[in-house]
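re the bet — no i am not wrong, look at it urself. input seq straight from the record:
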Amino acid sequence: MKRILLIIGVLFISWSFAAEPVFCSSPTIANQSECTSTCAAIADAGGYDVSDLTSGYESCEGKVTTKKISIYKIEIGKLDVSNPSRCIIWEGDDLTIEIAGNAASSLASKYPIDVSSCQKGFEYDAFFITMSRYEQFAAESVFPNDASKMVRTTSTYAAKDTDNNNVEANWLDSTSNGFSDNSKFYTLPDAWNSGGGWRANYAYKKISNASSSADLTSQNSVAMYWDFVKDSKKWATDTATRNGFNCKASDSTDCIGESDGYNDRLVIIEAISPTLTLRDGDETLDLEYTQYYSNRNSTNNHVGAEFLWYNNGGTLEYVGVKSTNGFGSLSASNSRSNKGL
């Protein structure tokens, strides 16, 4: 009997997990903290107004057409920072997951889920997931003020920025208007407005060598590499709470960690809900990824990529794009022996 060793839903969006998003009933280009505004919904609702861009820049969600990530290891453990008790349950090199698309499917791995060496009678409440620090994603969007025009990911800054020492000054173009150094692949919204704002904590990958209103409808959306480690440098500033991890201030679970000397990998933490307690004789279990939202649900409501816009004297111009999450959760269940498999 053929044994399916690992099954995970293909729509493993980014590395961030959350509940189903709430989309704005009256979407606008201005930030609405309690809901998600997509560029397409804003254009459809006529919700764009130049006066909304008083801070100089705003963003809205676009639609991903490609989103790939590689998973190398899955561990179970504890959220407790003093006693993580990590135990490897799967490790391999053949799990590349395509996130984008209109239909959910599943993926099998030749490597087994093996919990035989993990502590029994012990409550595990966290996954530790080792994955590539780089995600490949392609995305597109209509202009939020003009549905006849499109912005897309492009080839200009699509490549990996291989500055792995992570010194911000080496990769982030954060001076002048955010486009002073064409050798740097990322720009910082705060460069557009010294007053700051919530987007000052997030870097965006440049789409072109300057902000632009050029219509990219006739072009193809190009797969770009997004570096999660560089992205984390603006928000994961707590290096003291969890050993080996950089965490969001006041949140010891929203973290990015080191990965056994690999400079192209990272470790993230995801709570197991409900928690998992292994029994004597348990040797394997099922893993399942539940996707709460994807491109197939609505023409105007989608998640996965965020485009940044700039008001240049009354002309709306795109600045950059960043990978965003797709809302879902990984769960473990049906721990059992291997007998009969």
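see?? The radius of gyration is 21 Å. told u. also The longest strand covers residues 57-77. so pay up
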